[in-house]
Specification:
194 residues; alpha+beta; Beta-Lactamase; Arc Repressor Mutant, subunit A; five-stranded antiparallel β-sheet; 8 helices; 5 strands; 42% helix
Length: 194
C-alpha cells in the first residue's frame, strides 16, 4: 500500500538503467558504468557499451585486467567496499588516451565506475588555475599539460626543460593544490570544471 504522495511506477514504466546512465553522461561528460566484482560490465552509456560488443554475447564486456599496472589498478577499483572510493588512471593497452576512473561500491556485488578523459572533460583556464591555487604561470601550464594526459617527459620536451625540473614543478603543484598523486590532481582540478 502506498500513500497519496508517493508515486510508484509499474515495472514497464521504470527507466532503463542504461538510459539513466546515458543521461548522466550527457549532463556532465563523465561516463558511468555498473560492473560486478569480476569486472563484467552490466550497464552503462550506449556508446561505451557498443565499443565492448553485445552484452548478451558469450564474451561479456569486462574491465580489462590483463597486464601489469592496469591489472593492479583494476583490482583496486574492483575491491572497493562500503563507503570507500578508489581512483586510478588507466592507460589503454592500444595506446589510446589515459582515463581517470573513480570507483564506489553500490552493494556487496556491484560497483559504479565514473570514467573521465582528463583532457577532454576540460580544465579551468590558465588564469583561473593561477588564482585558485596560487600557481605561477609556468606551474599552471604544467597542470594544463597534465590534464591533457601528457607525461613528465613530454612536458619537459614541450617546455624545453629537463624532466627533473618538470618533476620538481609537479611536486610544487601538488603541494599548492593540496594533493599527493596525479589521480587526486585530476580529480581536484576536474571537479572545478563542473
Amino acid at each position: 500500500m502506498t500513500s497519496d504522495n508517493e508515486t510508484v511506477l509499474p515495472p514497464a514504466g521504470k527507466p532503463d538503467l542504461d538510459l539513466v546512465l546515458d543521461a548522466l553522461t550527457r549532463l556532465d561528460g563523465k561516463a558511468r558504468v555498473i560492473v560486478d566484482r569480476f569486472g563484467k560490465v552490466l550497464a552503462g552509456p550506449a556508446d561505451m557499451l557498443a565499443s565492448f560488443g553485445p552484452r548478451n554475447s558469450a564474451r561479456a564486456p569486462r574491465l580489462h585486467r590483463d597486464h601489469g599496472a592496469a591489472s593492479r589498478a583494476a583490482a583496486r577499483l574492483l575491491g572497493v567496499r562500503g563507503t570507500e572510493t578508489e581512483i586510478a588512471i588507466i592507460a589503454p593497452a592500444d595506446g589510446g588516451e589515459p582515463v581517470l576512473v573513480r570507483a564506489a561500491a553500490i552493494d556487496e556485488d556491484h560497483i559504479c565506475l565514473v570514467v573521465t578523459v582528463p583532457g577532454r572533460n576540460g580544465a579551468p583556464p590558465l588564469r583561473e588555475l593561477q588564482v585558485l591555487f596560487g600557481l605561477t604561470p609556468c606551474e599552471a601550464r604544467i597542470v594544463m599539460d597534465l590534464m591533457d594526459g601528457c607525461a613528465p617527459q613530454t612536458i619537459a620536451e614541450r617546455h624545453h626543460n629537463s624532466v627533473h625540473t618538470i618533476r620538481a614543478h609537479i611536486r610544487q603543484c601538488h603541494r599548492k593544490i593540496g594533493v599527493s598523486t596525479r589521480e587526486e590532481l585530476f580529480s581536484r582540478v576536474a571537479s572545478l570544471c563542473m
